[in-house]
Amino acid sequence: GAGVSQTPSNKVTEKGKYVELRCDPISGHTALYWYRQSLGQGPEFLIYFQGTGAADDSGLPNDRFFAVRPEGSVSTLKIQRTERGDSAVYLCASSWSPGGELFFGEGSRLTVL
Amino acid sequence: AQTVTQSQPEMSVQEAETVTLSCTYDTSENNYYLFWYKQPPSRQMILVIRQEAYKQQNATENRFSVNFQKAAKSFSLKISDSQLGDTAMYFCAFMMGYSGNTPLVFGKGTRLSVIA
Fold first, then answer.
1. Which of A113, B23, B29, B76 has the largest count of CB atoms under 10 Å?
2. pLDDT tens column, A17-40
3. Residue A17: which CATH number?
């Protein structure tokens, strides 16, 4: 597609459930980033992929969060045993290479009841 | 760790006027990039302007310009001839290193309202 696509746009779930958020980057972009944006805050880094491998996952808050990018294109952010504090907008961005301009998707808004 | 501070949670400006958004950052590095991003209600972050730390000349993109003061670690954004479409959240961001193999660090943002 022309831009970074994220699905779902909105997700409401109950505490304790499992959630998957998908990011489809711009075709050919090798670098992919996940950020989390809580209400009234700036985006906070979660994880960065270069190709298929996670080059930096230092921002993942705990082991309930996991992300994959098996074929170096689409990425899935997985959250287990969701908690109310996980409620936020999850942003995905991609770029041609590390240091290149980041192109962001419109985010997935997660609400945990 | 690098930090980015935006001290103005909210700003407003009359249409066609000029407004300046402030940003300061803290780093011990000498090589880095600075950015201003715009986030309208659609949530999609849009790059407004980018500055390389090794460049002394301030970056300019049409109505948007920056005042980069490296010694003071200050990076303000000036919007000239403000338009209603400029209404959005604005985030200042920092990226370390030439390789760019480090994540962007964002400030908390400034909500700008352009008033007709």
1. B23
2. 999 999 999 999 999 999 999 998
3. 2.60.40.10
